[in-house]
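seq as requested:
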Amino acid sequence: GGLFVLAGSLMPAVYPVWRRIDRWLKRYRAHRELYPLWSTLREITPEIALDPAASEFRDRLRVRDLDFRLYRRVIEIRDGRLALRPFLDAVVARRAREDALESGLDDGEVEAAVEARVLAAGVENARRRRRPAEVLPASGLGGKDFMAEVEWFLRVAGVPPPADPSAFGSSTVPPGRLDAGPV
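struct tokens:
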């Protein structure tokens, strides 16, 4: 009985510490899982990175100020998507939606699969300096608050990358000037 009394008396002291540790672990996991998506966008638009680590290994070792780092990562992913907007193809989005619906995914998974495929094709278009004939309009997808936004990008980052992003049938215009006109 004494052990139960001891365990019960320690709970008020241990529980808040456990919650802080659990919260930190979840944020660290999210920060790590968003790295590939962030890294790909940063490769195309390096100006989005405020304070990038020299490598993925060094990024894993940066464990201080994790709330700030996760917040920056989400903002930088959003900034990277905005920078890619002239290269995001509406035709790819329609085909990705059709494929995702045919595969039987639910609504949230369909939107994440479409976003992942559109971003992959946009990155490939930016690398090859091709602009699509029909640019995808701005996306209102994401979350209502910060953690919902993190969860959204985790779903997008969790979609397996395509074997060949150029196989999406992008409807690109001939290469030329890359400016998208007035933003």
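Residues 174-183 have pLDDT under 50 and may be disordered.
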